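Extended Data, panel c. Modelled sequence:
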Amino acid sequence: MSATNFELEAQLRNDLGKGASRRLRRAEKVLGVVYGGEEAAASIAMEQRKVVKALENEAFYSHILTLIVNGKKQKVVLRDVQRHPYKMQILHMDFLRVRDSDLLVMRVPVHFIGAEQCPGVANGGIVNHLISDLEIRCQASKLPEFIEVDVSKLGLDDAIHLSQVKLPAGVESVMLNSGHHDITVVSVHMPRQTKLDEEEAAEEAAAAAAESAEVDAEKVAAEDSKDKDAVKADKNEAHKTESKK
């Protein structure tokens, strides 16, 4: 797991209210709140440009962050992000203060590795990623940046289920421990169009075989009919000869 460190600077907000919020947003500020721990909740403001840059990194959403408020550092995790409905603008962020011993429930991204060595892919299959993140429970000090899933040994029509995903020590799956279904995380199958083409080819082959069999049956019936007509003709001829005698 990566040891990426994220630091984000913020200033305490003393001017609250809708008017003040509008002024701050016009000044390219992102509003926020930091809460939890033994301290009171605090309203803060951050630079829009720096926030947008930080949010470009996937790990920012599932990492222990360092929030520097008026020069004072504190460990936090990101709990919520509110975006403008149509502008490229962050409106508000919620941060939770954490200590290393705190028990957290977080969603962390899933990274799939080994597709280049996957036998199923070598045989024409494709890797289907059925989840992109996983809800886990662990102490803050053990929070992983991501969960890694190795698909290098999967053949065609093979799959990895949630119970087969190896989690770091001290990390547990919320879904599995809550008695939910053991979902499929990733699978390898032939592309749907290839399957359709194969099924269509099989149907055409079966239809051709049936048609060929039908033609053969008609030929046999025709030959049998000819034989019967010949026998009948021979009998008639024999009967006529007998009558003349």
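The mean pLDDT is 85. This feature is highlighted in the accompanying rendering.
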